[in-house]
Amino acid sequence: MTASEADALRQAAREFFDAVSPSTRIRELMATDAGCDRAVWEQMANELGLHGIAVPEQYGGAGAGLPELAVVFEEMGAALVCAPFFSTVALAVPTLLASGDDTAMRRYLPALVDGSETATVVLNGTLDAWDPAAVSLTARRDGTDYRLTGRADRVLDGHTANVILAVANTENGTSLFAVRTPAEGLGRQPMATLDRTRKVAALSFDGVPATLIGADGGAAAGLEQAYRVAVIAIAAEQVGAAQRCLDMAVTYARERIQFGRSIGSFQAVKHRCADMLVLVEGARSAAEYAAGLPDGDEQAVAASVAKMVCSEAFLEVALDNMRIHGGIGFTWEHDAHLYMRRAKTTQLIFGTPDHHAQRLATLVTSSSP
C-alpha cells in the first residue's frame, strides 16, 4: 500500500465514521444490549468494503493486508465506533484464514465479508493473552460432529454473534470449532463492563453441537498467528483513539480562556501537550511497524512491542486529556471519560503491558544465538 493509497483509505474511513458515529449516537448505542446500528454495519460492509479488506478475493474480500486493516482500526478507535467489527474482522476472520481449512473459509467468510453475519472467537474463555494451557472448553466426538462443554466468562460480542469460533481441548490437543447460533445447550448473557462501547458476554456450553475446523488437535499454531493479528489491530485502534484525545486536548487548550488568555499559552499545558504528542507518535511508529511485517518471529516481537507501547501511551494521553479539560473532563456529559474507559480496557485485553514485556523477553531470548 502506497502512502497516497493509505491516505485515501484513511480519509474515506474518517469521513464515514465522523458522519455515522457522533458522540450522541455512541451514547445511544452503548446503552443497548446489541451495541450496533445494523444499517451502518451493512454500509461498512457493502459501501466501504471494510469487512473484507484483508480477506482474499476468492472468499469475497478485497485481498489487501494487515497494513490496510490497521488504518481502518486507527479510524475506528478515533471514532469509538460501536459495532462487532473487532470481534468479526480482527478475531474471527484471521482465525479462519489461519486455520487453513478451505471448506470452512468458503462456508463462513463470504457472509462475514458482506455483513450478513457476525462472528467472534472464544480463546481462553477470558480476554487475557492467548495461552494454550488456559483453554476453558473441552470437546468430545459425537458421530461426525463434536459437543462442547465449559464456560467462557468474557467473550467479545458473544451474545450477538451468528457464528462462534470456539477453541477447545480434545483428546488430541487444542482444536478449533464453529458453532452457529442459536444452538442447543448454549447460554449467552451480556455483561456490564467499564467500556460500554464494546460489548462483552458470558457464554456457557452444555453439550453444544459444533463443527471441527482444521485438524483435530492441530489448531495451536494458527491460533497463535491469528492472536498476533488481533494484538496489532487493537494497538492500531489505541493509536487512533490516542490521537483523538490529543486533538481534543489541543483544541480545548486553544479555546479555553483563563486570566484573559488561552490556557494553551501556559507553559505547563504546552509541555503536557508536547508530551502527549511524543507518546502518540511513538505508539504510531510501533503499531505501523508491526502491521507492515509478514507473519513470523519478527512480527511476534513487534506485536508485543506495539501492544506494550500503545497501551501505555493511550492510557496516559487519555488521562492527560481529562486533566487539561479540568473539571468538565471528569463528568459523564463530556466524551473524555469514554476514551479513558476504552484506554483502560484495551490495556488489559489480550495481555497487559507487563505480560507483553515478559513475552518480549522470552521471544528475544529464544531467538538469540
UniProtKB/TrEMBL annotation:
The UniProt record lists the Acyl-CoA dehydrogenase/oxidase C-terminal domain at 232-361
Domain spans labelled Acyl-CoA dehydrogenase/oxidase N-terminal: 5-115
> Which superkingdom?
Bacteria
Q: Which UniProt keywords apply?
A: FAD, Flavoprotein, Oxidoreductase
Q: Which Pfam families match?
A: Acyl-CoA_dh_1, Acyl-CoA_dh_N
Q: Which cofactor does it need?
A: FAD
For this protein, the record's CDD domains field holds: ACAD
Q: Report the InterPro entries cross-referenced here.
A: Acyl-CoA_Oxase/DH_mid-dom_sf (IPR046373), AcylCo_DH-like_C (IPR036250), AcylCo_DH/oxidase_C (IPR009075), AcylCoA_DH/ox_N (IPR013786), AcylCoA_DH/ox_N_sf (IPR037069), AcylCoA_DH/oxidase_NM_dom_sf (IPR009100)
The GO molecular function terms of this record are:
acyl-CoA dehydrogenase activity; flavin adenine dinucleotide binding
Q: Which family does it belong to?
A: Belongs to the acyl-CoA dehydrogenase family.
Q: What is this protein called?
A: Putative acyl-CoA dehydrogenase [Ilumatobacter coccineus YM16-304]
